[in-house]
Structures are given as C-alpha cells and as structure tokens.
Design goal:
The chain has helices at 15-20, 195-200, 216-230; strands at 61-69, 75-80, 86-91, 100-104, 110-116, 125-129, 138-144, 152-158, 167-172, 177-182, 185-192, 203-210. By secondary structure, it is mainly beta. A 12-stranded antiparallel beta barrel has the order 1-2-3-4-5-6-7-8-9-10-11-12. Belongs to the LOR family.
Length: 233
C-alpha cells in the first residue's frame, strides 16, 4: 500500500469557536472514493492525513517535544513549533495501571485517546477519535512487531485494513532516536537534543522532523506510544 487519501476539505478557520459551541471542530470526513483517517483508497497522491488536514503542512516541518516531569508519577508533553507556539499537548493518568494518553490541540480539545490493551503480548494500543472508546470511533491500532524484541519497533494497522501494516516506527535505545516509515519511505524522525543536563533537571527536548504533507498530529501519537512501550522519551 503506497498511497493515502488527502482530505481535500478546506481547513476550518473557526474550529475553536465550534468546539466552544459543542460541535466537533475535527469532524470525520467520509469521502465517496474511500475513507478518511489516512486509509489508502487510490493512487492519486502520497500525502498522509490521519487526524485532520489542518495538521498537514505543504512544507517540511520541525517541531520540538518538551517533556516536563511531574514528580515521580510521570510527565506531560508539550509540542511546540520553531516560534515556541504550542501546537499539541499530551496528558493522561501516568500513575494509572491502565495506560491512557490523550492528544489535545492547543485549546485543549481532545483529538485522540490512546489506550494500552493489558492482555496483549505485543503491547497493543488502540487509538480512538476524541476521548471516547466506542468501537465505531476506533481509528487505528499500534503494537510491537514482536513481543520479545531487542529493537524498539511498532507496526500500525488501520481499522478498515486491519490485516495490513500501514506504517512502522523504529527506535534506538542508545541515542534516544526514532524514525517513522510509510512502507520503505522515511516520513518523520525524532532525536534527543536536551543532553544529560536536561535529563537531570527533569526536562527533555526532542526534535521531530516531519516530511511535507504528513499529518504531524498522527506522527506525534505514534511517538507517544513508542515512548510508553519502549521509554524513548
């Protein structure tokens, strides 16, 4: 599978106002030729849109993931652009036995909820739209390539093509880096830039470089799961 649908609806300029009004600013977009959420439907393009096209830029993008430790129970993540504007946030009950992480937009609106399936040998995670867990809102699943693996690797499966691996995430332990692949093509990578001093202060910064046309909210969600399963961040 080499091509993914571009959701061509115009970007919403008033999504925060709609969120305050109670409607969904990131409404699921069903297309006549297939499905949204980045599921492959044809050969017309190679862009990757999974969460929403407002998170896809026409140029290569560099973001910084800032990890701020909150005591011994875990950390919260802030994702900022080159001007230090917050573009995404990640939170969740880090002390909870049932791992759950919520990806939010800058206004706090929940985009995705990531949950670990405790009975899975492959550390399987389910990713739902918003904060719910309704099976109809399941977008994709992520799991280790092998239960006992020496190299951090995750495979991504979309709900409508659950038997086909759509993406893979490969991390390395020695330098806290990771790469995201679509088939054999590298579409994003992350590297630690904080150094040991930042680690001692309870803060770590990671630089994420994302190819043009790739949904950065989707990429961040994969890196969050990689962190939870392999402690990359």
């Amino acid at each position: 599978i080499s091509n993914f649908v571009v959701i061509s609806e115009s970007k919403s300029r008033n999504f925060r106002r709609e969120a305050m009004a109670g409607s969904d600013p990131y409404e699921y977009q069903q297309l006549s030729c297939g499905f949204a959420y980045g599921v492959p439907v044809g050969t017309q393009n190679t862009n990757v849109v999974v969460v929403n096209d407002v998170f896809s830029c026409p140029y290569p993008l560099e973001l910084t993931v800032k990890k701020k430790c909150k005591g011994l129970s875990g950390a919260k993540l802030e994702i900022v652009d080159l001007k230090s504007n917050i573009v995404l946030r990640v939170d969740g009950p880090h002390h909870s036995f049932n791992k759950k992480r919520v990806l939010r937009d800058p206004a706090g609106y929940p985009l995705l909820t990531m949950r670990e399936k405790l009975t899975s040998w492959n550390h399987r995670w389910t990713v739902h739209r918003g904060e719910g867990s309704d099976p109809t809102e399941l977008m994709f699943t992520v799991q280790r390539s092998h239960p006992l693996q020496w190299r951090a690797r995750l495979d991504v499966f979309f709900q409508s093509h659950h038997h086909l691996r759509n993406f893979s995430v490969v991390g390395t332990y020695h330098d806290d880096s990771a790469k995201v692949y679509h088939a054999d093509a590298l579409i994003a990578e992350v590297k630690d830039k904080s150094g040991f001093g930042g680690f001692l202060k309870g803060k770590q910064d990671f630089v994420v470089r994302i190819n043009a046309g790739v949904d950065y909210a989707f990429i961040v969600s994969l890196l969050v799961i990689l962190n939870e399963t392999n402690s990359i961040f």
